[in-house]
Amino acid sequence: MTIYFRVLDSTTQKPQLKPLSYTREIPTGTVNGSNLDFVLSLTPFSDDTTDVYLDRLYVVPSEYTLNIGTKTISFVQAPQSSQEVFVKYLKS
User: Fold this and answer.
1) What is the tens place of the pLDDT at every residue in 2-29?
2) SS3 annotation, the chain
3) What span, in angstroms and rounded, lies between the C-alpha atoms of 46 and 67?
C-alpha cells in the first residue's frame, strides 16, 4: 500500500506529494532480557506512523522511544528472550 503525504520541498518551498509505504519487520537486536535497543533497516516517516509489538501485542509509545535519525527503538524495559519484537511503520 502506498500513501501520499503533502510536504514542502526544502529547496523550492512548493508543496508536493511524497509517496510513503508501510513496512513490517523484525528489527535487529538481541532479545535477551537485558538489551533495550533495536535498529530498523529503513527510516520511519514519524513517531506517529510507527507501531511496535511484543508477541503480537501492541506496545504503547510510553514504553519505548524512537530515534528516527538512528532508526533505533529503545524500550523502557528489555524484552524477554522468549518474546518477539515486531514493528510496522511508514518508511520515508
Assistant:
1) 667 677 676 777 777 777 788 999 999 9
2) CEEEEEEECCCCCCEEEEEEEEEEECCECCCCCCCCEEECCCCECCHHHEEEEECCEEECHHHEEEECCCCEEEECCCCCCCCCEEEEEEEC
3) 9
Please name every residue paired with 89 in a beta bridge, in sequence order, or none if there are none.
23, 50
Alpha-carbon distance 20 to 58, whole Å?
22
Q: What is the pTM of this model?
A: 0.79
The domain limits of the chain are: 25-91
